[in-house]
Automatic annotation (TrEMBL):
<dbReference type="InterPro" id="IPR009057">
    <property type="entry name" value="Homeodomain-like_sf"/>
</dbReference>
<keyword id="KW-0804">Transcription</keyword>
<dbReference type="InterPro" id="IPR018060">
    <property type="entry name" value="HTH_AraC"/>
</dbReference>
<feature type="transmembrane region" description="Helical">
    <location>
        <begin position="6"/>
        <end position="26"/>
    </location>
</feature>
<keyword id="KW-0472">Membrane</keyword>
<protein>
    <submittedName>
        <fullName>AraC family transcriptional regulator</fullName>
    </submittedName>
</protein>
<feature type="transmembrane region" description="Helical">
    <location>
        <begin position="125"/>
        <end position="146"/>
    </location>
</feature>
<feature type="domain" description="HTH araC/xylS-type">
    <location>
        <begin position="243"/>
        <end position="342"/>
    </location>
</feature>
<dbReference type="Pfam" id="PF12833">
    <property type="entry name" value="HTH_18"/>
</dbReference>
<feature type="transmembrane region" description="Helical">
    <location>
        <begin position="100"/>
        <end position="119"/>
    </location>
</feature>
<feature type="transmembrane region" description="Helical">
    <location>
        <begin position="69"/>
        <end position="88"/>
    </location>
</feature>
<keyword id="KW-0805">Transcription regulation</keyword>
<keyword id="KW-1133">Transmembrane helix</keyword>
<feature type="transmembrane region" description="Helical">
    <location>
        <begin position="167"/>
        <end position="185"/>
    </location>
</feature>
<keyword id="KW-0812">Transmembrane</keyword>
<feature type="transmembrane region" description="Helical">
    <location>
        <begin position="38"/>
        <end position="57"/>
    </location>
</feature>
<feature type="transmembrane region" description="Helical">
    <location>
        <begin position="191"/>
        <end position="211"/>
    </location>
</feature>
Length: 345
């Protein structure tokens, strides 16, 4: 009895945590399509997990709940693919498209059909449709896996380590695969295995991300205490390397560019790079990068007159319109719109 209660609590906890994580990714700023897809994926899996948990402990559950769970399964495959797809597109600095409507449209169409052919009246069809749903899910996992394989070169940073974003990406993909395998193996194991696998994967992912964050903080502390004053010639050489790197590789177009990443690119400590920027240019890292972004924005405002301000901000590496407007005003003394109008006239 106690083991049964513990099993129910553990499975239900996974579903609840999945919902909380979904809310977090939906509200995460800056708003990105990849985060929205991850939030929707976690929500769909949480619904499926909750249905499995309650049905396992209460087989007399209303059939409407069974239909609800199966409908959620139709979304897991496409959402897994879309999360992987848009996450990788952000890494390649490509603008987010609208193809997600086509991928999710078929799922929602089938879900809508369920309103006219409910589980309670068409049990035979619904029970046999699970095979089609799992094949549908599997095909999208194959497509997502292919995208990951094609983009394997950008999954690691410059020193061969796996960033937290990549770790989360692979964890979400592997969790989707694990849950599908768990449901397919139900005849050999137990109906509750799918719910348990999701609970396990969610908690392992959260723990690993927390540990990774602590490790990064500790690394930053070590770098801080290793800071040394550079000689004049070394400082000027480093500054030249920074400027050359920014111009040639256009690192400023990466909205996730950090001081740590820039330092790795030039093979120096981030505290050293920060020191050189402050001593030689009297600029912070953010100001240094934003000046490159604003120069790029000026060119786009004049050469790409059809672009609205939101697209200009995105293509210049800004995470939000407000950040773009504030930086443009601070550096140029005027708004992007007034700059474009003055230049055109």
């Amino acid at each position: 009895m106690i083991s049964g209660q513990f099993l129910f609590l553990f499975s239900a906890l996974g579903a609840m945590n999945g919902i909380f994580l979904a809310i977090y990714f939906f509200s995460r700023r800056p708003h990105r399509l990849a985060n929205s897809m991850l939030g929707a994926l976690l929500l769909a899996i949480s619904v499926r997990t909750a249905k499995s948990t309650f049905y396992f402990f209460n087989p007399n559950l209303a059939v409407e709940f069974l239909q609800f769970g199966l409908s959620a399964c139709l979304l897991i495959g496409p959402l897994t693919y879309l999360y992987v797809h848009y996450h990788l597109r952000d890494s390649r600095q490509e603008a987010a498209g609208r193809e997600w409507r086509w991928h999710l449209g078929l799922s929602f169409f089938v879900i809508a059909l369920g309103v006219f052919f409910p589980y309670a009246e068409y049990r035979f069809i619904w029970r046999h449709s699970t095979y089609g749903i799992h094949v549908f899910w599997f095909l999208y996992l194959v497509a997502a896996g292919w995208e990951l394989w094609r983009s394997r070169a950008i999954l690691l940073d410059d020193v061969g380590r796996m960033p937290r974003s990549t770790l989360l990406l692979l964890s979400a993909y592997c969790s989707s695969c694990l849950i599908l395998i768990a449901y397919l193996s139900t005849p050999l194991t137990s109906y509750i295995v799918g719910a348990l696998s999701f609970t396990f994967s969610v908690h392992i992912t959260v723990v690993v991300l927390m540990l990774r964050k602590e490790a990064l903080v500790e690394t930053g502390k070590k770098e801080k205490y290793q800071n040394r004053k550079l000689a004049e010639d070394d400082a000027l050489t480093l500054l030249t390397s920074l400027n050359q790197l920014m111009h040639e590789q256009q690192l400023y177009l990466n909205p996730n560019l950090t001081l740590a990443l820039l330092a790795k690119k030039v093979g120096s400590l981030q505290t050293t790079v920060s020191q050189v920027l402050n001593d030689k240019l009297n600029k912070s890292f953010n100001l240094y990068v934003n000046e490159f972004r604003i120069d790029h924005a000026k060119k786009l405002l004049l050469s790409e007159s059809h672009l609205n301000m939101e697209l200009v901000a995105e293509r210049c590496g800004f995470n939000s319109n407000s950040t773009f407007f504030a930086a443009f005003k601070k550096i140029t003394g005027q708004t992007p719109a007034s700059y474009r109008a003055a230049s055109v006239s």
